[in-house]
Design brief:
Elements: H1 10-24, H2 30-42, E1 60-61, E2 67-71, H3 79-82, H4 90-101, E3 122-126, H5 139-155, E4 161-165, H6 167-179, E5 196-199, E6 202-207, H7 212-215, H8 222-235
Parallel strand pairs: 2-3, 2-4, 4-6
Antiparallel strand pairs: 1-3, 5-6
Helix pairs in contact: 1-5, 4-8
The structure holds iron/sulfur cluster (SF4).
Iron/sulfur cluster binds near residues 141 and 145.
Length: about 240
Amino acid sequence: MPAHRAAPRPGRDRALATLEREVVGCRRCPRLVAWREQVAQTKRAAFAQQTYWARPVPGFGDPGARVMLLGLAPAAHGANRTGRIFTGDRSGDWLFAALWRTGFANQPQSLARDDGLRLRGCWITAAVRCAPPANRPTPQERDRCLPYTARELELLDGVSVLVCLGAYAWDAALRLAAAGGDDRPRPRPRFGHGAEVRIGARTLLGCFHPSQQNTFTGVLTEEMTDAVLRHARELAGLD
Ligand code: SF4
């Protein structure tokens, strides 16, 4: 077994499976439930023949992860369609290619839940589990959903580095740290690409979100993405 591969822990794995079932069955936010299901009915023309997932999207990855990637929320026609986080949209194409180049993934593409993708040493999740209209959850929706991520983080107790994909995820990670009892650093750490702050036993790393808005304009390049992921590996002791 590779040095960074944690031994199986049946209790933890069962607890993660229980959490996943709870997340997938959640209907606590009426606005988001209505939106995720409406999108699944209207669909995008390119996916007209597909059946959308249309449920909350659970986290995904290696239960022995030392690095967690945190995003905002599922994309309406991406993870809300495929049922796996960052799977089925351009942001995911960018992210999984980078995870493959930096040794976290066994393949550069993420197409569907059954495509054989495996992550090593990392786990990917989101602050909010249902696709929100205009990618904007309300503060109440965020506060309802973030405890799922807190529980996930508690179960994934090998995680020492959180890579925050965008300012929203950075803010969510600071909230998770405060909810977990860690003192929030003062002044409040500002998000930026490559921003780094240690809070308690974990390090937060900032990474621009791999949205087309950033990747098409050169705000985020492959080199910039890979540099953050490689640094995460170093900090987490994976190399
Ligand atoms: S956003 Fe989170 S809390 Fe709200 S319905 Fe979806 S899974 Fe439940």
